[in-house]
Amino acid sequence: MRAGAPETALKAAGWRFLPVSGWPWRSAGYLFATVGVAVVAAAGLAVPAVPWLVLAAGGFQAGTIAALVLLGAALVAALGPLIAIPVVAAARWRLRMVDKRPARPAVHRRAAGDGPAAWLRARYTDPVAWRETGYALLLATVVPALCAAALVAVLLAGVLITSPVIVSVGGGPVALIVGQVYTVRQSVPYVIVGVATLPLLPYLVTLVAGADAALLRALAFGRPDEELRAELTEVTASRARLADAFEAERRWIERDLHDGAQQKLVSLTMQLGLARLDLPPESPAAASVAAAHDQARQLMTELRELIHGIQPQILTDLGLPAALDELAGQSAIPVTVDAPIGTRLPGQVENTAYFAVAEALTNIAKHSGATQASVQARVRDRTLVVEVTDNGRGGADPERGSGLTGLADRAAVAGGRMLLSSPPGGPTVLRVEVPCQNPSG
Fold first, then answer.
1. Cα–Cα distance for residue pair 383/433, rounded to 1 Å
2. H or E stretch including 147?
3. pTM (2 decimals)?
4. Cβ contacts of residue 125 below 8 Å, gap of 6+?
5. Pick from 22, 111, 206, 373: most CB atoms within 10 A?
6. 8, β-bridge pairs
7. Structural contact between residues 339 and 350, judged by C-beta atoms closer than 8 angstroms
8. What distance, in Å, lies between the first and last C-alpha atoms of the chain?
């Protein structure tokens, strides 16, 4: 390929090396394929276009004409998005012939549910489907006319150039454009015209093919903004899946530690306690067993705290309100809790809210100088709203620590957000909003 060669037929139409490149041949193949696809489009739209075909016969009054036009438009609108599916599918495969750029199919609106009714609702409210319908209509009317005109121009030039041969072989008159040719001598001017137009034909064929390909890409393929939205949607879905997997892993680790390591440590602590009772108090072995027993008890306490930090059992068993009450009871300052939530929320939502409140209460106890705090939790418009308020000195800044930044990141992963108001002198209000579309009872 030549340096700087165009990637599309439309750009190649203005390229100086076009006549000696492969673009005219690719474009001609594209136009032949377009005629075939246009036949498919015309066949599919023949039924809804019957009123228009009847109208073409003529001889109708104004009222009848208007009725036929409206009826045809209604039928095309009713069946067009469905007919466009096979038509556009047949049209897409040939784009690569005249457009070397990567192309992704347009992103269609997903059905909000299962079943044919949901799919039809999504299809008929999808702007992409209506763009495809528009291309199918053009493909059945305007596009084949342009393609046929370009191909006829090529064939006509060939007939003009070969007219002497046709006359000599046929032995009779040959009709060429505006007149008939009876002898080889009479065909010479037509040969000159055919040779003169020959250099223009590659540009004509390439231009028509490129224009149709550009129209196809614009109407039946993804636009840059739609592709970006699709990628962002996939990133968001992927992030949600990773968050769910992370929360499931946390619960698995918590259960494994609680049912495995912690139970074995409890058994070991009990055995060391019994052994400690059986040994004489003043013996050397008693001192070693007592030290081991104390270390085991301390280790068990630390393990409980570790398990609780990974996934509080009360949150898993009883839900967010009970878990918030437990946090308030463990706080170093008085904390009131108001969480009238009567249903269980999705696990990721409850975990996000719980750890946000836990981090907030820890920060209050360490840095705010507050003497009291409050926690409120409500579900409003399918969104869990949690507010933690304290009467401390204020001035909290997420940029000065990773705790608040981590809370904001955790809320964002769950599709929510964190808001902070902490003027100097207080009070400080931390607000976390997390969507909970599917609360379960």
1. 6
2. helix 142-161
3. 0.49
4. 109
5. 206
6. 99
7. no
8. 65
pLDDT tens, residue by residue, 285-337: 777 777 777 777 777 666 666 655 556 777 777 888 888 888 888 888 888 98
Per residue in 350-363, is it b (16+ CB within 10 Å) or e — as a string? bbbbbbbbbbbbeb
Candidate CATH numbers 3.30.565.10, 3.75.10.10, 3.40.50.1820, 3.40.190.10; the one for domain 318-435: 3.30.565.10
β-bridge pairing 179-181 and 417-421:
unpaired
Domain boundaries, given as residue ranges, for the chain: 9-222, 233-310, 318-435
Amino acid at position 347, single letter: G
Residue type, 100: K
Whether the Cβ atoms of residue 392 and residue 408 lie closer than 8 Å to each other: no
Angle, alpha carbons 80-84-89 (nearest 5°): 175
Would you put residue 394 in left (φ > 0), alpha (ψ -120 to 50) or beta?
left
Q: Is the CB of residue 12 less than 8 Å from the CB of residue 24?
A: no
Rounded CA separation 285/154 (Å)? 107
**Site of tokens 């019994």:** 274
